[in-house]
Amino acid sequence: MNQVTAVLNEVRASSPLVHCITNTVVPEITANVLLAVGAAPAMIDLPEEAEIFAGVASALLINLGNGSSEQHRAMPLAAASAVAHDRPWVLDPVAVGALPVRTRLARELLEQTPAAVRGNPSEILGLAGESAGGRGVDSTDAVEDALATARGLASRVGTVVAVSGPVDLIVSADRTTRVTGGSDLMPLVIGTGCSLGATVAACLGAALPAGLGRHDAVVAAHALFAAAGTVAARQASAPGSFRTAWIDALYRLTPDEVVGLVTIRDA
Amino acid sequence: MNQVTAVLNEVRASSPLVHCITNTVVPEITANVLLAVGAAPAMIDLPEEAEIFAGVASALLINLGNGSSEQHRAMPLAAASAVAHDRPWVLDPVAVGALPVRTRLARELLEQTPAAVRGNPSEILGLAGESAGGRGVDSTDAVEDALATARGLASRVGTVVAVSGPVDLIVSADRTTRVTGGSDLMPLVIGTGCSLGATVAACLGAALPAGLGRHDAVVAAHALFAAAGTVAARQASAPGSFRTAWIDALYRLTPDEVVGLVTIRDA
Amino acid sequence: MNQVTAVLNEVRASSPLVHCITNTVVPEITANVLLAVGAAPAMIDLPEEAEIFAGVASALLINLGNGSSEQHRAMPLAAASAVAHDRPWVLDPVAVGALPVRTRLARELLEQTPAAVRGNPSEILGLAGESAGGRGVDSTDAVEDALATARGLASRVGTVVAVSGPVDLIVSADRTTRVTGGSDLMPLVIGTGCSLGATVAACLGAALPAGLGRHDAVVAAHALFAAAGTVAARQASAPGSFRTAWIDALYRLTPDEVVGLVTIRDA
């Protein structure tokens, strides 16, 4: 069986509990996406509770988009707790590079060795100190321009780095995968990127205990998102109805259908 | 006229103003649901403002899902203000039992005598100290397993306890009602449970000033939600489109249609 | 070319980056609306980051609906930074007049000379100290009752005051415009008013650098919202599906279609 198919089957079978510390804009869509893909969401931000919960959940997402200082206090505690309890955690460095508080925090969090980092090209460059970080959540850099930086980051930190764009780039120290699919409407629905970070966490939380690979788990999340985007774009041509069709597709697509809808290439 | 019909008519007629202190994931769907059922939502979290507003609104919802410490400071002030001004308030003990900060807070709040408590089985058991509280917002216990605990809680606190599940259980000291209806897709849309707590508050805020019963008000909210779920499931088979159809149904269903779509049994 | 058409074309052409400090209920719909109309949203609330970002973004929205005390600390810093960097900012005085903390804050912020103020009639009266401010976000006053107050406020502060309702009133010191259109379903979708404030900011952020007028920019935002409401009401008759159709219409409508769908009258 294809590794992507195996990961997505495992998500449906094990329903990983994903602890999210995420920004104020996307909690609802993130939770709905996690439910649609077969995972269970739990947003828990209070430092005292987050530290406990990160050790119990299947995986943790830390998204640095617009958060409170209380959430910022919870993040290092939760990341350390996840690591201590051998749970994978994912860093989504929203607008890192462009804004100082979150840039410092992102670099501090990186020392806790996330299982994966997911961002747009400007954010990945910003995390590595090589870009001003785009305009808020928008990237001003192209995906392929972040390739060398992503490789360096993956090697140095020992993580999988995913760079999202029209073609997604998933980079480990010894492997680079490109996922092609999706729709131009996806960036017009807020939270598609942020909920991809959460779905990466879900795939890791399901895959690793089943002996599946970390890199494959990250690829599987991106393949699922792109496939659902491709399907939704056949049904809807504006962002309101696209959003609904896309969540329906995330729920309905079988792992085999996902693999048939996107192009996944190692190089 | 059926008591459920009377309550739902009263919600449409009086448009109760529902003050919600709720978690970071569900404010938007909660507000949209309150508007759809004929109530008026107001989320007010600052301690100083919440204390004032809880004395003015028709009813108050306190939902213990992911909240900030600032919201936690507002909750006891708002509950006390609601009680002092003779306004019903509803406690939704999300993930209580599983997490320490909110468990302590829930038990402290219980002393302010909520008019109703609504949760899933694990949360009701957790509130009573009899369960570890499930996985985040997911219940790991069955509805009927919480029956004796719900009865004890209802008697001891002098409240109505609603236990949500495939069959909802509404329990007062001297009465037990089961509501059957809805759809398996409801738990796949985040906030259907949390907005049910808000709708319980809306029904109480409309029913009590009109001389209708507290138990009937809680039953009416559950009947409306289940009926809308039943209707939405006829129109949609995936959670994105189900969510839209369900909100439309909450808006469109007449009280008589609600009563015709669900089974309500006292026993 | 019509001035409204010119403003809306400029929004699509320049994709203004809109910094929003807004309430806990509406960030997602606000971001989706900004994306649909062609702008780029960025919610940034931390005081240190908000101060920096307000000087970089095309425009700033400050919405006083349910916010944390941390957001309240950020608001004056962001407004001052916007003014210092010659960026337009918009004040949305949600529930001002009805609640004390935000009423004090709104009057303090008014000294930073917003380019526009947008609210319902009760909020505009409340901001001027002439009303108790309605029921939460609901207005208890009629639009035309706020006309004289809006004129006084516009003159005294040197701003454009928009009063939203079935007929929108846009008032500058020397000009009054009425926009007619939309649908009764709009107030049943939470965030349509709050995202109008954000779209006013987007129109100002696009119009002013292009040499277009401030009053016209505010009119254009209201015309676009009303036109999309008119279109959506032809497709949907309940708030769940209306919301989807309305966001689709915001995305699809050309500036010429907008002008054809609403009535805009100066008087």
SSE topology sketch:
The structure is a homotrimer of 267-residue chains.
Chain A: H1 3-14, E1 17-21, H2 27-37, E2 40-43, H3 47-54, E3 59-63, H4 69-84, E4 89-92, H5 100-110, E5 116-119, H6 121-127, H7 147-157, E6 160-163, E7 167-172, E8 175-180, H8 192-207, H9 214-235, H10 239-252, H11 255-261, E9 263-266
Parallel strand pairs in A: 1-2, 1-3, 3-4, 4-5, 5-6
Antiparallel strand pairs in A: 6-7, 7-8, 8-9
In whole angstroms, how far apart are the ends of chain A? 21 Å
> Helices and strands of chain A: which structural class?
alpha/beta
Major sheet summary line of chain A: 9 strands, mixed
Determine the oligomeric state from the structure: homotrimer
Radius of gyration of chain A, CA atoms, in whole angstroms: 16 Å
CATH fold name of chain A = UDP-N-acetylmuramoyl-L-alanine:D-glutamate ligase
Query: pLDDT under 50 segments of chain A (min length 5)?
Result: none
CATH top level assignment of chain A:
Alpha Beta
User: Mean pLDDT across all residues of chain A, rounded?
Assistant: 95
Which homologous superfamily in CATH is the superfamily of chain A?
A: Ribokinase
Largest interface: A-B, 32 and 31 residues
Report strand % of chain A: 15-25%
Count helical runs of chain A.
11
Structurally, the number of domains of chain A stands at 1
Strand order of the largest sheet of chain A: 2-1-3-4-5-6-7-8-9
- CATH architectural group of chain A: 3-Layer(aba) Sandwich
Shape of chain A: globular
Helix coverage percent of residues of chain A? 40-55%
